[in-house]
Here is the input.
Amino acid sequence: MSPSLMDKTIVLGISGGIAAYKSVELLRRITQMGASVRVIMTENARQFVGPLTFEALSGYPVCSDLFEKGANTSIQHIEWAQTADAVVIAPATANIIAKIACGIADDALSTFMLAVSAPRIICPAMNSAMYLNEAVQENLKTLQQRGYQIVSPGSGQLACGTSGPGRLADPQEILDELLMALTPKDLAGNHILVTAGPTREHLDPVRFISNPSSGKMGFAIAAAAAQRGASVILISGPSSLPDPPHVQVIRVVSAQEMADAVFDHFDQVNAVIKTAAVSDYRPQTCSPHKIKKGDDEIVLTLEKTTDILNTLGMRKRCQILVGFAAETQDMPAYAQEKLKKKNLDMIVGNLVSEKGSGFATETNKVTLFYKDGRVEPLSLMPKDAVSHVILDRVAALLMQRPEA
Ligand SMILES: Cc1cc2nc3c(=O)[nH]c(=O)nc-3n(C[C@H](O)[C@H](O)[C@H](O)COP(=O)(O)O)c2cc1C
Here is the structure.
């Protein structure tokens, strides 16, 4: 399954708020993911941005006029309501939110919203006082109860000079919600634990042993699993990435904290995907204060950390266990040895020294090794695409369990 909006038709509704200019970037990002976009603008939205940019980027005329004819003399907004796979209103003004909540249909966008039955995503953007007003909050609650997805606005400095909640959510957040709405839920009912990122093993309060893992691979897998309907726990070492939507995130620092968190949750899940680059060794002692520069040489004694995968391999009953092997040489041999030794169902091997592969990159080139001896090399692809292939294989392994 691919993480794209390929062949989907998305209707982008734009209402009359300052953030209307941000819809240009959103439209571009949606089309980049392979979707075809139709734009409906309110008359007031046209006061903020002209339709020309949206027409050029979408390749379709913008609909604003309720009485405009579509192809083959059909009524434009009804034709689009019938063909839409999803609808996003961004920005959604207090006015359009109120109209949708009350079923008012006095222009092209509000009438379209009554006619469409595809998933509907509403992205409010307005002045904080307006957003916090009881009427707006009540209307948003009504829409949420009716199954609309509300992408809450961010907080910060607003165009009107005030500060607080009301800023249109980031395009990525809106795209995540779109993917969530359109991805088939083939992992529904499954509980998946994913680990990500590096760990830090402190030798004093300001220094630690770590590695360059960014957490990207694990965060991508967690996000993709949640999009596919799984209930996901992500246990991550230090990473600057934001929490993936609809995922329970537990942030830890050291290998021991990661081990404790994983062991605490292991019995509640039916699959574990361990992408974290956990430190194998930690300093035997950690100084309570910064170690001062003194002798020409100092000796650091390291001790082994808990081997999380090994412990899980011994403890597992019916869970599917997937490990990662990031290697700089002899990857197939090391990966297959780790697969057997740690009682895994699958291991994802990658040569971190290869271009476009491994730590902190947007792409990864991996080979999947299975318990039954099968080997499946994948081509270089973005980490979210790799995630979906791994999850396809995990879904198959879950199905093959004797008790499935
Ligand atoms: C300069 C300016 C900025 C505005 N920004 C917003 C806004 O960010 N959010 C909002 O809900 N309304 C905003 N409004 C008010 C809406 O434009 C107004 O409620 C209008 O009726 C919305 O119409 P529509 O929902 O049909 O587009 C703004 C008005 C002006 C004049």
Summary: The chain is about 35% helix and 25% strand.
